[in-house]
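step=encode ok
step=design start
structure_in=
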């Protein structure tokens, strides 16, 4: 479901209930700026992310060196994650 910021402000209670069954994309001037999801989905997403980074750490430890390209890609992802 996609809604704009004004719609969210006017019906926040309705959308808080809706996130139990679906994610809601918040738009501003037609561009997506945020997502509202249930806490259960948020926890599940975080677990997947933790598992991903754990597997990357294990790969790095086994290989001893990621290489410049892989390291740059991981740093970009980490920087984006930290800025959110």
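sequence_out=
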């Amino acid at each position: 479901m996609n809604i704009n910021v004004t719609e969210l402000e006017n019906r926040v209670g309705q959308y808080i209930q809706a996130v139990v069954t679906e994610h809601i994309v918040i738009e501003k001037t037609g561009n997506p700026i945020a997502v509202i999801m249930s806490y259960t989905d948020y926890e599940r997403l975080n677990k997947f992310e933790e598992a991903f980074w754990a597997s990357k750490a294990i790969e790095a430890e086994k290989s001893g060196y990621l290489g410049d390209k892989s390291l740059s890609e991981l740093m970009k992802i980490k920087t984006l994650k930290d800025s959110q």
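step=design ok
step=annotate ok -> Residues 39-63 form the longest helix (25 residues).
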